Amino acid sequence: MKRHLVFFMLLYVLFPLRASALVCSNEQRVNYQTLASNITTNYTYTEQNGTVTFQITLSNIYEGLIVNDIKNGTTYPYQGNELTITNLNPNTSYRFDIYTSDVYCRQEVLYSHYVNTPPYNPYYQDEVCVGAEKFALCQKWTQITMPYEEFKQKVEQLKKPAVEEPTINTKTTTKSFYDYAIELYLKYYYIVLPLFIIVGITIIYRYNKKNDLF
Fold first, then answer.
1. How many Å apart are CA 189 and CA 180, to the nearest integer?
2. Which residue stretches of the chain are H helix?
3. Any idea what DSSP says for residue 129?
4. What does the alpha-carbon distance between residue 111 and residue 62 come to, in Å, rounded to a whole number?
5. Is residue 120 within 8 Å of 50, Cβ to Cβ?
6. Which residues contact 97 (CB under 8 A, 6 or more apart)?
7. Order of strands, edge to edge, in the sheet holding 65-69?
């Protein structure tokens, strides 16, 4: 037993670099993490018969990196610079953990990429949405959980024109004596006007008669 122990100690002393190579160094770890973080993601979709499926593409994959689809439990070894995963669902969060195939560093998650696919509205092209495209209920990427009949009823309600409330004028004005005089005259002019005429004729008659005396 002692001989074996002495033998392994001699190996460690004589070949220290060989022993340290069995461990993932900080330099290696940082390098792999940088490569993993440089991967880019994007998604596209295919729409058919009122349903939609998504495709997520991971690009700029460095040779030796491994992609683990956490949502679907699938691991993809390096197959080239680009990886496309198909038949994915709307309104779902996907996580892709990146590992390396390097046997000394492969146990560590180097980086995690997240992709969220949007919700899909299967009714957005329905005839009830004609003229109601501006409403959220009739837009493609709106989450709809209600049955169709309820959806239809809500959209038809939104399309009804709003009833405008009558405008009440609360503005008050202050009238002058002149305004009241005009209103009174216009209201009783058939009485006031003859009186003015009679008084005027009387004054003129008296004035003329007085002048005739001189």
1. 13
2. 2-14, 16-20, 26-37, 148-159, 177-213
3. G
4. 13
5. no
6. 67, 68, 70, 109, 111, 112
7. 74-76, 65-69, 93-100, 111-116
Integer Cα distance of 44 and 46 in angstroms: 7
The SS3 of residue 214 is coil
pLDDT tens by residue, the chain, 214 residues: 445 444 444 444 444 444 445 678 999 999 999 999 999 999 999 999 889 999 999 999 999 999 999 999 999 999 999 999 999 999 999 999 999 999 999 888 999 999 999 999 999 999 999 999 999 999 999 999 999 999 999 999 998 875 555 566 555 566 676 676 677 666 666 676 677 777 778 777 776 766 665 5
- Plot region of 19 (φ>0 → left; ψ -120 to 50 → alpha; else → beta): alpha
- CA–CA gap between residue 109 and residue 1 (Å, rounded): 39
Kindly report the pTM of this predicted structure. Answer: 0.64
H or E segment and range at residue 70: none
Question: Angle CA(92)–CA(53)–CA(118) in degrees, nearest 5?
Answer: 40
